[in-house]
Amino acid sequence: MLMRSLLAAAALSMAAGAASAEEMIKMDLSTGPVVVKLRPDLAPKHVERIEALTKEGFYDGRKFFRVIDGFMAQTGDPQDSGYGGSSLPNLKAEFSREPFRRGSLGMARSNNPDSANSQFFICYEGCGHLTGQYTLWGEVVEGMENVEKIQVGEPPRKPDSIVKMTVIDR
């Protein structure tokens, strides 16, 4: 009886650990690989959207069309103009008090807070003022040096791109 109880407790513990496994995305950039920890605790609907678009291959081949030195690199627009998005409806903002910092990923939007769709940016530095005004949905955990290699410009002369973006199986 004690052995069954111990086995049951171990199984519950393992199941709880699996349920709380970190959600990750891998971006193979033209500059090298980047691993992103998703933050469904901050922005569940935005993470759900990023995962869905990633699984359908939406981000594969997308260019970084707006890259501001020392600030951020933006991608996710099929038109590479800053005005395009996916065929899905826009998302309601999921702002949080979690500070934007180096390696934070946030959803791009228009002046309308509820206009995020598919475009996102990766922060270099100086993004702190975006906290509470843009939806933060992820953070770079590996490969920030490859994000820093992305060609600067609005648009860059020779834009870098997401070669392939995949959800990492847990």
What are the SSEs and their pairings?
Layout: H1 2-19, E1 24-29, E2 32-38, H2 44-55, E3 66-68, E4 72-75, E5 104-107, E6 120-123, E7 136-142, H3 144-147, E8 162-168
Antiparallel strand pairs: 1-2, 1-8, 2-7, 3-4, 4-6, 5-6, 5-7
Mean pLDDT over the full residue set: 90
- How does the overall form come out from the CA principal axes? globular
**Fourth CATH level, the homologous superfamily:** Cyclophilin-like
Low-confidence runs = 1-20
Span between N and C termini? 33 Å
Domain tally: 1
Kindly summarize this structure in a few lines:
This protein is an alpha+beta fold. It has helices at residues 2-19, 44-55, 144-147, and strands spanning 24-29, 32-38, 66-68, 72-75, 104-107, 120-123, 136-142, 162-168.
Please, could you describe this protein's structure?
It is a single chain. The protein is of the alpha+beta class and 170 residues long. It has a single domain (23-168), classed as Cyclophilin (Beta Barrel), CATH 2.40.100. 20% of the residues lie in helices and 25% in strands. The chain is built from three helices and eight strands. The protein is globular and about 35 Å long. The two termini are 33 Å apart. Residues 1-20 have low confidence and may be disordered.
